[in-house]
Hints:
single chain; mainly alpha; disordered N terminus
Amino acid sequence: METRNPSATTQAGKGTTDNDSKHNLNNVINSIDKTLGLLHQLHLTVSSFSVSSQLPLLERLNAVVTELDTMQRLADSCNIQIPMEVVNLIDDGKNPDEFTRDVFNNCIAKNQITKGKTEVFKSLRKHLLEELEQAFPDEVDTYREIRATSAAELKRQTQAQSILPNGDMKVKTEH
């Protein structure tokens, strides 16, 4: 078994790890397909069992056990996390896509709530600034100058952090 040093992983190494994970997953899927085929053959042998079919039955049982062992070894090399809710849905005979749809809909609802709260706070801030400007115009002007100065400073710091020693700019890659 090969071990990898995660701190030494580069972008190219990450691609290799992703390919390894996909390859391992494909191996597990192929093993599952093979096991299903073997179970089907075993079912046919059992359903038409006779004394003369005892040896093929034992051979198919051994093949199923061997393939289950292979599947377990292959599965150990995969790092896939499945939420218990999905497993429970499958156990209940339901479609796991329901879980995905529910999670997605909950995210949309929470996003809308958060967006509404943000808009309300922006509106409140604007209203308070308008009221404060009527009562304390000089202080509000000073406040706006301070905000503009700090925003410009923050922007300058952000740009300075994204410049590499050789003068190139760091570019955030899209995934």
